[in-house]
Write a structure and sequence with these properties.
Blueprint (H helix, E strand, L loop, with lengths): L19 E6 L10 E6 L4 E6 L7 H10 L6 E8 L5 H19 L6 E8 L6 H14 L8 H8 L7 E7 L2 E8 L12 E9 L2 H14 L15 E12 L2 H21 L7 E9 L2 H12 L2 H8 L5 H9 L13 E4 L2 E4 L6 H10 L3 E7 L5 E8 L3 H8 L4
Parallel strand pairs: 4-5, 8-9, 10-13
Antiparallel strand pairs: 1-2, 2-4, 3-9, 6-7, 7-8, 10-14, 11-12, 11-13
């Protein structure tokens, strides 16, 4: 088991909030490296969770939905490299068995355990190796729980190239988030697997409200390839060890942490070389702004132009224009900028074109659209589209 003490962009080591501990290990889900993790609170906790809306939601999601209803989850276990989706009754029984065994290790009720499973769809879990591993972990007990947030973030990875963690503070409490997911990624509720742990004391209603508000403007504004996963789950668990905090301040800190994770996920999209932000302003309402922004960020032609540092603003107009139900959009009222340079309706020439290419070559590219309708604004997050994405996904199971 690893014991990573690296630092995040915040100062200091990445450590759990008060009262949380974790374990990672190798259970035979992948050939090498840790592929199973458990994070648990040493005391009762309050929780809020959002799940994928996919019609093919996996057994982990179905079981976790039932457990999440009580809003008193205190542990999360994650299996990497295998989504355990489309695996029938056996898949359901396997997910339940993993939860039962983890609950036994922790000495808590089964319905206080959330399970996540991520990876290839349609393959049964290797239960023989998982059982052997969990039997050994049971013998070791909580003494095995020495993993840090970076260890857990790594153990959750599939095609990710780096672990994602974020840390924020609110009052005397800390909020620590971990996430994975870089493909099959356009959330329709939350995103991939993202877990947030805090020692803040929050009521179930306030925690749920904070999570939904944060997800709506961060994870649900993320897209790599327009495909919604069967396993998406985002959860926040608050054990109150640091005492009560102001709900409004907590909501702000949680949203900021989720935005941090969202941008890390977007910039690590499969095959990605750049983070792409699309900001749409002067829309009639937030939903319209987000819809138009998603149309731009999801366009393969826009994404490939960004990859090639080609300031082809015509592709942005195309992406806006295909929203034919938005009849209040008038081309003459629309403006488009790449970075701080307007490309429509004032078409750039000469030296400005050279500056545009330099903007498009940056690691982070902003496309700003104004619709000239109202005052609403939305920002969405994505990445460029490279040959690397095709290579990863063409050979994913073979």
């Amino acid at each position: 088991m690893a014991h990573d003490h690296a630092s995040t962009q915040d100062s200091g080591p990445v450590t759990w909030p008060i009262g949380f501990q974790a374990y990672t290990g190798h259970a035979g889900l992948r050939e090498h490296g840790d592929d199973i993790s458990i994070v648990a609170s040493d005391r009762p906790a309050t929780s809020a969770v959002m799940f994928t809306q996919s019609l093919f939601a996996g057994p982990a999601v179905v079981l976790s939905r039932a457990h999440a209803a009580g809003q008193n989850l205190r542990a999360v276990t994650t299996l990497a490299q295998n989504a355990n989706v489309a695996t029938g009754r056996q898949g359901e029984e396997n997910a339940a068995e993993v939860v039962r065994r983890v609950a036994g290790i922790l000495g808590i009720p089964e319905d206080e355990v959330l399970i996540g499973s991520t990876g290839v769809i349609g393959r049964p879990l290797p239960m023989d190796t998982i059982r052997t591993h969990l039997d050994e972990t049971t013998k070791r007990g909580l003494a095995a729980f020495m993993a840090g947030p970076l260890d857990v973030a790594r153990a959750m990875m599939t095609t990710d190239t780096r672990p994602k963690t974020a840390v924020r503070a609110v009052g005397q409490a800390r909020i620590v988030g971990i996430a994975k997911g870089v493909g099959m990624l356009e959330p329709d509720m939350a995103t991939m697997l993202a877990y947030v742990f805090t020692d803040a004391e929050m009521s179930p209603a306030d925690l749920d409200s904070a999570l939904r508000g944060a997800v709506n403007r961060t994870f649900n504004c993320l897209s790599v390839d327009t495909d919604t996963s069967t396993s998406d789950t985002v959860a926040v668990i608050a054990n109150g060890a640091a005492g009560p905090v102001d709900p409004a301040q907590f909501s702000e800190a949680l949203a900021d942490l989720c935005l941090d994770l969202t941008q890390q996920l977007a910039s690590d999209g499969e095959g990605a070389t750049k983070l792409l932000r699309v900001i749409v302003g002067q829309a009639g309402d937030y939903e319209q702004a987000k819809r138009i922004a998603k149309s731009v960020v999801n366009s393969p032609l826009v994404k490939t132009a960004v990859h090639g540092a080609d300031p082809n603003w015509g592709r942005v107009l195309m992406a806006i224009g295909k929203n034919t139900d938005d009849t209040d959009i008038e081309p003459g009222n629309v403006t488009v900028r790449f970075g701080d340079i307007e490309v429509y309706p004032e078409e750039p020439e000469g030296d400005t074109l050279d500056k545009l290419v330099e903007i498009m070559r940056q690691d982070e590219v902003d496309i700003i659209v104004t619709l000239g309708i109202g005052k609403a604004e939305a920002t969405v997050y994505g990445c460029d589209l490279s040959a690397g994405y095709i290579r990863i996904n063409a050979d994913y199971t073979t």
